[in-house]
Design brief:
Blueprint: H1 2-5, H2 17-36, H3 42-49, H4 57-81, H5 83-102, H6 107-135, H7 139-170, H8 175-178, H9 180-194, H10 207-230, H11 235-257, H12 271-301, H13 306-312, H14 314-335, H15 337-355, H16 364-390, H17 399-433, H18 439-468
Keywords: Cell membrane, Membrane, Transmembrane, Transmembrane helix, Transport
Subcellular location: Cell membrane
Membrane topology: Multi-pass membrane protein
Length: about 475
């Protein structure tokens, strides 16, 4: 199946490919973990640095905005200068940025560190996926490699929660960032011997396109986040949203005119690629709010300590890792991309619906464990098929671009989905507080609404996948 849907350069089997895959999966784990490792640490960071409840999401969004905004540029640089070189430069930037975030003394310094972390990750993610695709040419091996890749990505999101809890409780929140530095040193030390040096291609870099696309993304997310205080009908909110749309139109116009654009629009002629990227954005817009609000529910409603909160999500992490490595590849080979993608998103929607009924007096065994395991199975079923669909039909010389595009879709979905659902949750909490509810009841009511909104998003993703993804040949 995968050999039918992904085009990769033909080359002899690389002897160190499995050792190289370990390094690349480690890199993907770290990149995705950095989106979630701060989850359990949020209350401690809020207390130390004085963030507001709604302002906390900027610790996440500062990372995701720069990550998503520069992924296309990272993919383009990977195609032009070689994936290994860009991969290593990404880790240099990520390590320096992690030091800044780890010693942050204010909201501004932490947000700046997180933004630079996102920039480094934007270089790492597309180049790492390109290296995976080019090192495994046997279809069965590639299928297995993508299973490990998907497991490392999805597990990184969940494991970050557990690790964040342990680090926050036993050390301090500063170490959820500082831990990246020794890992970065290890990856940089192993990369020259395990990752083959890539070929250089002639071409130019569309910096204007990268700046315009990132500016549009930043303005759109900021408009949604700031709407809570400015008002949804305010001139500021609508002005920023309008400006972001104008910048997106300018970006498309630039891509049409440039001889070597950042994102050749012709790539969207591959139907599954286009539909797959939409589905990946919707998947992220449901999955990221799940762990974000589940962390807050565990600590602010059930009042679990940071470590216990992370431990509560360990079954989800283990399920994702085992399911993706052992089961997902076999199910894809038997049933194809579409059934697994649709089924996974429906399972994720069902899990979110269960979370939307979690009460103030909830328990781990009844209201957290069943839904979290169902959500883990859903994500495990959907993530790899969604990734495969999103890079289907890309030309060999566009492998970095396709890798950057699918990561961009996921991160844009993450940031916009979280921004919208946080705004919905905050508005619901404010309405409930104005009534006769206690603070914790009002807060939980907002969380329930957030889970329900995310369930609708996941259901929408399943409907898009069912209607737009074309059935691919099976292995």
């Amino acid at each position: 199946m995968i050999s039918e849907t992904i085009v990769v350069p033909i080359q002899a089997a690389y002897k160190k490919r499995w050792a190289a895959l370990f390094v690349l999966c480690m890199a993907e784990f770290i990149v995705i973990m950095d989106t979630s490792v701060i989850g359990v640490a949020l209350p401690a960071i809020k207390s130390d640095l004085g963030y507001s409840q709604s302002g906390l999401q900027w610790i996440f969004n500062a990372y995701v905005i720069f990550f998503g905004g520069f992924l296309l540029l990272g993919g383009r640089l990977s195609d032009l200068f070689g994936a290994r070189k860009i991969f290593m430069w990404g880790f240099v930037i990520l390590s320096v940025a992690s030091l800044l975030a780890g010693v942050a003394w204010s909201e501004a310094s932490l947000n700046a560190g997180r933004a630079l972390q996102g920039l480094g990750s934007a270089l790492i993610a597309p180049s790492a996926l390109t290296l995976v695709l080019t090192k495994f040419t046997d279809p069965k091996e590639l299928n297995k490699a993508l299973g490990f890749w998907g497991a490392s990505a999805a597990a990184g999101g969940s494991a970050g929660v557990f690790l964040g809890g342990a680090i926050t409780q036993w050390l301090s929140w500063h170490w959820v960032f500082l831990i990246n530095i020794p890992i970065g040193v290890i990856v940089l030390a192993l990369s020259p011997s395990l990752l083959l040096k890539g070929t250089h291609r002639k071409g130019s870099i569309d910096l204007a396109g990268a700046v315009v696309a990132t500016a549009a993304f930043v303005l759109m997310v900021y408009a949604i986040v700031a709407a809570e205080s400015a008002g949804w009908q305010s001139a500021q909110t609508w002005g920023l949203l309008l400006l972001s749309v104008v910048l997106l139109i300018v970006f498309v116009a630039l891509q049409k005119k440039r001889k070597e654009p950042l994102m050749p629009l012709s790539i969207f002629k591959a139907f599954n690629l286009s539909a797959g990227n939409i589905v990946m954005a919707l998947m992220a817009a449901a999955w990221i709010p799940l762990w974000f609000f589940l962390n807050l529910y565990l600590q602010q409603v059930l009042h679990l300590p940071a470590f216990n909160s992370g431990l509560a999500l360990l079954p989800m992490t283990v399920t994702i890792m085992l399911f993706m490595v052992i089961i997902t590849g076999k199910l894809m080979a038997k049933f194809g991309i579409k059934p697994n993608l649709v089924g996974g998103l429906l399972a994720l929607a069902a899990a979110l619906f269960l979370f939307s009924m979690a009460p103030v007096s909830g328990s781990f065994m009844t209201h957290v464990l069943p839904a979290s395991l169902l959500g883990a199975v859903g994500m495990s079923l959907a993530y790899i098929p969604g990734t495969v669909a999103s890079i289907s039909g890309a030309k060999p010389e566009e492998s970095g671009l396709a890798s950057g595009l699918v990561n961009t879709s996921y991160q844009i979905g993450s940031a916009l989905g979280l921004a919208v659902i946080v705004a919905i949750s905050s508005a619901k909490t404010s309405v409930l507080k104005a009534g006769d509810m206690s603070d914790v009841e009002a807060l939980n009511g907002g969380f329930q609404t957030a889970f329900l909104a995310a369930a609708v998003v996941s259901l929408a993703g399943a409907l898009v996948a069912a209607g737009a993804i074309k059935k691919a040949p099976q292995a």
